[in-house]
Specification:
It is a single chain. The chain has 254 residues and is α/β, with parallel strands linked by helices. The protein has a single domain, classed as SGNH hydrolase (Rossmann fold, 3-Layer(aba) Sandwich), CATH 3.40.50. A five-stranded parallel β-sheet has the order 2-1-3-4-5, with helices on both faces. It is globular and about 45 Å long.
Length: 254
């Protein structure tokens, strides 16, 4: 499926190519900011585990790009993502545990679908606890990447937010409230184009906002003033950056 269109496609292709980068980190599992302070020249190593909402538009590579633009310790990412996978699917498939066990990670990011229904919330929380044991054993911290509901279920935003917040609390982990960032930018501009054609996967604009949320939490640096995506108006970029900062201030967990 092609997500987004027009002039932003060129930058998306570049970022997808950069989505998996190898590196070594000497940071220990404390806070993202202290991990950045203690990291060596190889930077902060982050492993993303998720599905096509993580893969869309090269989110991990976009986070890396923001870290280069924003200064501080570089963020190096790797990804284990399969379309349609829940965290339970990842656990049963096994690749995610093997990558975690390789060690050297600072943060391992967990993501599944919106998880707004009671049964999917329970599955998210149970899987986060299961993965957290392996993540902690590897010397890393667990983070939850909060996504968003389908465009025809916007009333489920609160439930999605609660599910991911509870999962992060269960493991004393980090919370990346990207879905709350979406709501924050819509309060500024209700027409901000965040949903792609299928009503779930993000446009490049939606992914950029999620990347801003994640970058600020990991790097401990403000996203204000970072360069926009190619072809994005400066005012739109400013709205997205302010929304990311608001979401982290109100809902982020470090």
């Amino acid at each position: 499926m092609t997500l987004g269109a027009g002039v932003l496609n060129a930058v998306v292709n570049v970022l997808v190519a950069a989505a998996i980068v190898t590196g070594v980190s000497s940071s220990s599992p404390t806070s993202p900011a202290s991990a950045a302070q203690r990291s060596n020249d190889s930077g902060i190593r982050v492993l993303f585990i998720g599905n096509s909402l993580t893969q869309a538009n090269g989110l991990p590579g976009m986070v890396e790009t923001l870290s280069r633009q924003g200064g501080g310790a570089p963020i190096r990412t790797a990804t284990v993502a399969f379309p349609g996978f829940s965290l339970e699917d990842h656990w049963n498939e096994g690749t995610a545990q093997r990558r975690i066990a390789e060690g050297g990670w600072s943060i391992v990011v967990l993501q599944q679908g919106p998880s707004s229904l009671p049964e999917s919330r329970a599955a998210l929380r149970e899987s986060a606890v299961r993965f957290d044991k392996v993540i902690r054993a590897s010397g890393a911290r667990t983070a939850l990447y909060m996504v968003w509901p389908e465009s025809n279920r916007r009333g489920a935003f609160d439930a999605v937010s609660r599910s991911y917040a509870q999962a992060a609390e269960d493991v004393h982990g980090i919370l990346f409230p990207a879905g709350e960032g979406w709501r924050a930018v819509w309060r500024r501009d209700p027409d901000a184009p965040l949903y792609g054609p299928d009503g779930l996967h993000p446009t490049p604009t939606g992914t950029y906002l999620a990347a801003l949320v994640i970058y600020e939490q990991i790097a401990g640096r403000s996203p204000l003033g970072l360069p926009p995506l190619t072809g994005m108006p400066a005012e739109r970029a400013r709205q997205l950056q302010e929304a990311a900062q608001e979401a982290n201030a109100r809902f982020g967990r470090r």
